[in-house]
Amino acid sequence: MVTNVTSLLKTVKTVEDEHQRGTRALEAAIEAIGQEIHLYDTGEAPTRGAASAEDVIRSTKQLTAATARAAAAAQTLQQSDIIAAANLARQSVCDLLATTRAAAQSADSADAR
Fold first, then answer.
1. What is the C-alpha separation between 82 and 64, in angstroms, rounded?
2. Given this model, what pLDDT does residue 64 score?
3. Interacting residues of 29 by C-beta distance below 8 A, sequence separation 6+
4. Is 100 exposed, middle or buried (0-12, 13-18, 19+ CB in 10 A)?
5. 85, 89, 92, 94: CA torsion to nearest 10
6. What domains does the chain contain, in order, with CATH numbers?
7. 81 with 26: CB under 8 angstroms?
8. Low-confidence residues of the chain, pLDDT below 50?
9. Exposed end of the chain (fewer CB within 10 Å): N or C?
10. Which of 18, 35, 40, 22 is nearest to 90 (CA)?
């Protein structure tokens, strides 16, 4: 009897851990985005050199794709889809911030920066 209860508890724990993977991925992505925004605001974020308007547009397209992926993950409710969407969103926001900073550095006027 004890073996069956122990086995049941291990199974429940495994299922619970599996269901929390998506939540942990989302929380980690939110934290990483918050840190990137803080670096961007303080001016400590690394720059990539010069960036053009086309580079900014390319970055926004990646963010649009990440948004679509998040909407699809919300429909399927699959942990793997949620994790992939969280990772793509984190990377897209980080790329957009870096590209924006690079574009601002190459701007002609101080107002544009």
1. 16
2. 93
3. 86, 87, 89, 90
4. middle
5. -140
6. 22-105 (1.20.1420.10)
7. no
8. none
9. N
10. 35
